[in-house]
Amino acid sequence: MASRSLPRVLSGLREIAADYDAALCDVWGVLHNGRDAFLKAADAIRRFRAERGPVILLSNAPRLKDGVEAQFDRVGLKRDFYDGIVTSGAVARADLIRRSESRPLKLFYLGPPRDNPVFHGLDIRFASAAEAEMVFCTGPYDDETETPEDYRELLEVFKARGLAFLCANPDIIVQRGDKLVYCAGAIARLYEALGGCVIYYGKPYPAIFEYALAEARALSAVSKPLVIGDGIETDVKGANGLKLDALFIGGGIHNAEIREHPDALANLLEKSGVFAIGAMSELLW
After folding, report:
1. Confidence (pTM)
2. Which residue from 180, 193, 196, 226 puts its CA 20 to 30 A from 13's CA?
3. Does the structure show a pLDDT above 60 at 174?
4. Which domains can be identified in the chain, with CATH numbers?
5. What is the predicted pLDDT for the residue at 3?
6. CA nearest to 23, candidates 54, 47, 46
7. Buried residues in 191-229 as b, exposed as e (16+ CB within 10 A)
8. What pLDDT does 83 receive?
9. Of 33, 45, 85, 30, nearest to 63 (Cα)?
10. What percent of the chain shows pLDDT beyond 70?
């Protein structure tokens, strides 16, 4: 039996695929890094889908399915290896719809223009920090140059007004090419440290996994899904919370740490209080 601190190291997904009838697979860090497609990973998922069952991609992207697929097109990933895509942006949008049912919702929007489609068709009024009812964050305005500290003064204004901070991407950092960039989750953590109230959408929170499982079960009688991802605090922790098995991909945001320190994987998992059934440096069949 595998140790509770160290997962079984696999050479390929094929070694455990027969134990599962669906896969909930992370996107960024497993299938691409924002610049380069991981074609072997896509092929592994394609093989799993053909031989075992439905594949639902599960992303903390603060945008909708079409935005994720547009990025697939840019990096060179075909759209033939999955059955559905569930994003934190879609879960957040569903909540915005609920919140704006009775009247227009006045939001302060913190994020880049590329994420604006999450608001399309909603009864939303964008407002200043002094007038907004709540904050909706998809990430820094410029994640290539900014850090959470660049927003401290603005966050202090939000805190003074008692505004709830809706975080549409709980990720702290993500790997873009060979660079790590901050996500909305990093700004949300700072707001919490200042005493602010944060509402998170996406992994590791149960709602996004439940959305994904519902999509998979609409296609097949799923009884044992496998969660695949490179985020210990998002993918693996979320899987553990729902008592689902997780396969950890170490070549994503934790790649440098694991390569430099042989015991880093066990230490990372133990420190986070999570367990993965298996681990691979990259997703292969």
Report:
1. 0.85
2. 180
3. yes
4. 104-200 (3.40.50.1000)
5. 45
6. 54
7. bbeeebebbbbbbbbebbbebbbebbeeeeebeebbbbb
8. 98
9. 85
10. 93
